[in-house]
Amino acid sequence: MPLRGSPSSVRPAETGRTDETQAGQRTRRTDPGVPTPRRISGQRAERLAPYVLLAPAIAIVVAFRLVPLLMGVNFSFTGDGERDGTAVGLDNYAELFRDPLFRTALENVGLLVLLLPVAVAIPGLLATFIYLRVPGHPIYRSVYFFPAVLSPVLVGAIFNLLLAFDGPFNAALGNTGIDPVDWLGDPDIAMFTVVGVHVWATFGMALVVFLAGFSTLDATLLDAARVDGASLPQVIWHVIVPGLSRTIQFVFVTTMIGMLTSMFGLLYVMTSGGPEGSTYLPEYYIWVQQGEMNRPALASAASTVLFLLMLVVGLAQIALLRRAGREH
Amino acid sequence: MRRVRLRVWVIAVPMAALAVATIYPLVFTANVAMKTRHEYILDRFSLTSSLSWDNIATAWTSVGLGRYFANSVIVVASAVALLLLIGSMAGFALSHLRFRGSRALFLCFLAALFIPFQVIMVPLARVMADSGLMDTYPGLILAYVAQFLPFTIFLMTSYYSGIPGEIMDAARIDGNTTYGVYRRIMLPIGRPALLSVGILNALFCWNDVLISLLMMPSPEHRTLMVGVTSLRGQYSDDIPTFASGVLIAALPVLVLYLFFQRQIADGITAGATKG
To answer: B155 pLDDT exceeds 80?
Structure first.
């Protein structure tokens, strides 16, 4: 492969020259044959090909992802409004943690962490039953997966109709003699409602991942367990959970990330952070500060906190599940 | 024997109930969308008797969803085309060409995959505003490309890595340049992956609300999802029209899902198992 000898390591004091002369010299140095001009330009084109092919991707990722990430961290140490652009140290962070709305947002993250095992166990169990060929198993995968492709905005809009005070949900409860619940208007309930809808909308995604994990599971282990007379819970606990530890780890991390970063549409449509600010999450807080309050520096501080939070959650989960995997 | 049977149904019945619960919300919405306002107020649960398309027409024309729909189609189609082109070029280079820094670059793209949009949205808005791209189609298209490119590169790289290098060597002996190999060999060979990644990206872009809310502030530039959210305020007393809007916005996704379910699931699980 001609690209092997790419020689930027053998590039001594040539910095003053243009790229073209450098490339020409390179060609001569690595190719002792008599080079015709056409061959030189052809080879140069070949040598540069990987960089040409990658150039648009690099430019876009650098300009619109990496640079903004660094700018954002930098922003978070500057002021808003009158103090725009001046360094303010940790003022934004101090303000952030004084803000009851942001504190609620963090508390809600804690709630998400607590609900996470449920959000993983539901698709995990369903995938197990589908894998064990519960009656009707060929269609469940498609049916359960379907809401996962709907936009959170549409899911939110649909559930706004379903959860209305005089909507189908409360009507069904009424039939069993339970009083109607104000699903989105009660500060103690609203966050659970939104998380519940999020789980409804996304469990199919995790289910599909679990089913892919099952295809790597050694089926003879299951047969052996069955011959030994293991019950279903025993099979799940002693065969399936250890066998799928990598998949479970992946689903844990992606479900948590999904809860931290893809509930915006639901919050925007269903509650707008209300009632009484009870359904704030960091991502919604960032949007409100940026889009409505015009406080970009404060929003950047919140972004940085969210980013750190995600790093910590991701790493902690990986560490925890690694250890659990080793004990088995 | 009977006990075993009983146990199976203990699982099967809740699963069937859950399947109904998964489908019912959409059926309910479709039913409401077909009702007249009067009919809805009288009884919101009964099956519609009218099968009226008036609400759909109202949502499409007088509410202006048609305009938003066109905006979405323009932006999503351009973004997906760019993503596939740039992503497959990069994936081919990262998987089959040897050059300095290829591994470091791949790791950079992989790391970029884990930067959520919320974390960069504030400075991104400033970058876009400074370069005059704010509130323009190219701006939103670029924002989508930037958002979903790392994922696209990752999947294209892992797909192309599964294709033996001998194919490329043979093509070179036949006199192809690297670009020729990309255009004549890798693009056609990559079709299944391009289809899967393209559909996933189309879904992501179509379903997005946060990025377009940030990048397209003026009302005439609204994408369909933002249009649906604004519908809520305007038509809070006209639920059937609102439900029609939801149905219009969901329809393309439904169609994609019906035809390309396998590719969508494949794309998601390819990201999962190889990650």
So the answer is: yes
Which residue in the set A135, A260, A299 is minimally distant from B12, CB to CB? A135
SS3 content of chain B, % helix, strand, coil (to 5): 80, 0, 20
Q: Which residue of B has its CA nearest to A48?
A: B99
Instruction: Count A/B contacts: CB-CB distance under 8 Å.
Output: 260
Could you tell me the CA-to-CA distances from A10 to A50, A117, A230, A304 in Å, in that order? 19, 54, 65, 40
Mean pLDDT of chain A: 82
A68 touches chain B (CB under 8 A): yes
- B120–A68: do the CB atoms touch at under 8 Å? yes
**Exposure string for B146-155, b = 16+ CB within 10 A, e = fewer:** bbbbbbbbbb
Give phi and psi for A248, each to the nearest 5: -60, -45
For residue B25, what is the nearest residue in chain A, using CA coordinates?
A: A158
* Contact between A217 and A244 (Cβ < 8 Å): yes
Considering only the beta carbons, identify the residue of B120, B182, B275 that sits closest to A72: B120
Q: Give pTM, 2 decimals.
A: 0.87
Q: How confident is the model at residue B71 (pLDDT cuts 50, 70, 90)?
A: very high
Outline where A84-167 has alpha helix (H).
Answer: 91-98, 100-131, 137-145, 152-162
ipTM exceeds 0.85: yes
DSSP string, B200-214: HHHHHHHH--HHHHH
Q: Do B209 and A264 touch (CB under 8 A)?
A: yes
Reply yes or no on whether the pLDDT at A32 is more than 60.
Answer: no
pLDDT in tens, B116-144: 898 899 999 989 999 999 999 999 999 99
> At A240, phi and psi to the nearest 5?
-75, -45
How far apart, in whole angstroms, are the C-alpha atoms of residue A191 and residue B246?
Answer: 23
Q: Best interface-test mutation with A: which of B119, B141, B178, B235 has the largest number of A CBs within 10 A?
A: B119
Q: What is the mean pLDDT of residues B165-177?
A: 88
- d(C-alpha B226, C-alpha B209), whole Å: 6
Chain A, residues 234-263, CB within 8 A of chain B, namely: 247, 250, 254, 257, 260-261
The DSSP bridge partners found for residue A78 are A87
Residues of A in contact with B269 (CB under 8 A): 208-209, 211-212
pLDDT at residue A4 in the model: 38
pLDDT at B227 over 50: yes
State the DSSP string of A209-228: HHHHHHTTS-HHHHHHHHHT
Q: Are B127 and A265 within 8 A, CB to CB?
A: no
pLDDT of A29 above 70: no
* Helix and strand element counts for chain B (H, E): 14, 0
Q: Give residue A8's identity as a one-letter amino acid code.
A: S
Residue B16: its chain A contacts at CB < 8 A? 136
For residues A162-173, give the mean pLDDT. Answer: 85
Whether A208 sits inside 8 A of B269 (CB atoms) is: yes
- Residue A183 contacts residue A193 (beta carbons within 8 Å): yes
CB of B33 within 8 A of CB of B65? no
Is the model's pLDDT at B69 over the cut of 90?
yes
**And the tokens for A7?**
């020689």
Predicted local distance difference test score (pLDDT) of residue B271: 63
Burial letters B168-206, b for 16+ CB under 10 A, else e: beebbeeebebeebbeebbbebbeebbebbbbbbbbbbb
